[in-house]
């Protein structure tokens, strides 16, 4: 049994980790930390976990995380980079669901995240946890940078085109929509029901911190710099990301076959039949990315539709997928979940 600790168990990503790990028969939950809620039973805050998680929140100091085999950081940006070294030195593997280790250029990370990096030496060691690209490196890793939600949907949607070199990589467009849970479980005006409900708006148009992460991943796949316009939007729903992606073909190719071949062995990427229109509700609660690819009017513009649950394949589910790889468990263990509909 893999002994698991979770740092930061009170947010949406933390509770999603607990929901998924509670049904994973290859792990045992050792500790779930929260400085503010230490001593409170987890099931008191989240009654959905009654009968599944019997632990109480503990402070990081009392959690004895060094006794774990792996620790997930479901914390705000800037926490894991200050605490990972001590755990790694104790032989504990670390999976960071925030952005502390995602961007290899530390100066670039500091520019976008507005703080100094506390452990720049670890950035070079961290493995970017997109299994569909880095599976073998993940198996050997002791530190995983779990991808962001938008970057997961966008990269999986563009990867077959970039890897095959069949599109102009200098003029990609990612038009993305996310549910409000992507903003986290905190009191902010824009996430209030009266602000987000019955409303639709763009944000981060001048530049969003997920942009360099997406460009980095796609540039690595294609071996050349990426030109990307990325515009995220907030939608009045709780879960889900819908990424509508545009690229211009530089030669004629059967894009449907290209995607089907690229993801034929990927259990968590579903390439839908030609002409399909994937919906966010088709992945709600599941670890699947559903993709449909189109060529409107048979022209040279490719439109890729990519949907994920931002809390599962975009966060906690992908983190568990990475954990399974790191510990030699079946990759889909604990993640064989049928999405919830309606």
Protein described:
The protein is an alpha/beta fold. It has two domains: about 120 residues, NAD(P)-binding Rossmann-like Domain (Rossmann fold, 3-Layer(aba) Sandwich); about 160 residues, Dihydrodipicolinate Reductase, domain 2 (2-Layer Sandwich). Helix content is about 30%, strand content about 20%. It is built from eleven helices and 13 strands. It has a seven-stranded mixed beta sheet with strand order 8-9-7-10-13-12-11. It has a six-stranded parallel beta sheet with strand order 2-1-3-4-6-5, with helices on both faces. Helix 1 packs across helix 11 and helix 7 packs parallel to helix 9. The chain is globular. It comes from Chitinimonas arctica. Its EC number is 1.2.1.38. It holds the Pfam family Semialdhyde_dhC_1. Belongs to the NAGSA dehydrogenase family. Type 1 subfamily.
Structure characteristics:
alpha/beta, 342 residues, Dihydrodipicolinate Reductase, domain 2, Rossmann fold, NADP+ binding, seven-stranded mixed sheet, arginine biosynthesis, 11 helices, N-acetyl-gamma-glutamyl-phosphate reductase activity, 2 domains, six-stranded parallel sheet, globular, NAD binding
Overall pLDDT confidence: 97
Task: Note the total helix count.
Answer: 11
The CATH homologous superfamily of the largest domain is called: Dihydrodipicolinate Reductase, domain 2
Q: Structural class, please?
A: alpha/beta
| Helix/strand order | EHEHEHEHHEHEHEHEHEEHEEEH
GO molecular function: N-acetyl-gamma-glutamyl-phosphate reductase activity; NAD binding; NADP+ binding
Protein name: N-acetyl-gamma-glutamyl-phosphate reductase
Active site: 149
Organism: Chitinimonas arctica
């Amino acid at each position: 049994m893999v002994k698991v600790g979770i740092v930061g168990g009170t947010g949406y990503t933390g509770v999603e980790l607990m929901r998924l790990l509670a049904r994973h028969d290859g792990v045992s939950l050792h500790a779930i930390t929260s400085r503010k809620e230490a001593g409170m039973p987890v099931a008191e805050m989240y009654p959905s976990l009654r009968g599944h998680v019997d632990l109480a929140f503990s402070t990081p100091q009392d959690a004895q995380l060094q006794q774990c085999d792996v620790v997930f950081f479901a914390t705000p940006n800037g926490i894991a980079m200050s605490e990972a070294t001590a755990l790694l030195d104790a032989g504990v593997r670390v999976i960071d669901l925030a952005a502390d280790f995602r961007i290899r250029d530390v100066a670039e990370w500091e520019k976008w995240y507005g703080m100094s990096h506390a452990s720049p030496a670890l950035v070079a060691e961290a493995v970017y946890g997109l299994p569909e690209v880095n599976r073998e490196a993940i198996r050997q890793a002791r530190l995983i940078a779990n991808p962001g939600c938008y970057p997961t949907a966008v990269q999986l949607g563009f990867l077959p085109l970039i890897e095959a070199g069949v599109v102009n990589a200098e003029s990609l467009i990612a038009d993305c929509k996310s549910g409000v849970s992507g903003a986290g479980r905190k009191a902010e005006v824009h996430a209030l029901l009266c602000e987000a409900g019955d409303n639709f708006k763009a944000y981060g148009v001048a530049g969003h911190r997920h942009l360099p992460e997406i460009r980095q991943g796609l540039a690595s796949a294609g071996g050349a710099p990426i030109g990307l316009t990325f515009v995220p939007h907030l939608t009045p729903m709780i879960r889900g990301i819908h990424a509508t992606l545009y690229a211009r073909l530089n030669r004629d190719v059967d894009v449907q076959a290209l995607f089907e071949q690229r993801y034929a062995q990927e259990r968590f990427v579903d390439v839908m039949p030609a002409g399909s229109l994937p919906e966010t509700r088709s992945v709600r609660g599941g670890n699947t990315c559903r993709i449909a690819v189109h060529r409107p009017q048979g022209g040279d513009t490719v439109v890729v539709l990519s949907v994920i649950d931002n809390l599962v394949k975009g966060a906690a589910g992908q983190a568990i997928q990475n954990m399974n790889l790191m510990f030699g468990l079946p990759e889909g263990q604990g993640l064989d979940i049928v999405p919830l509909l309606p």
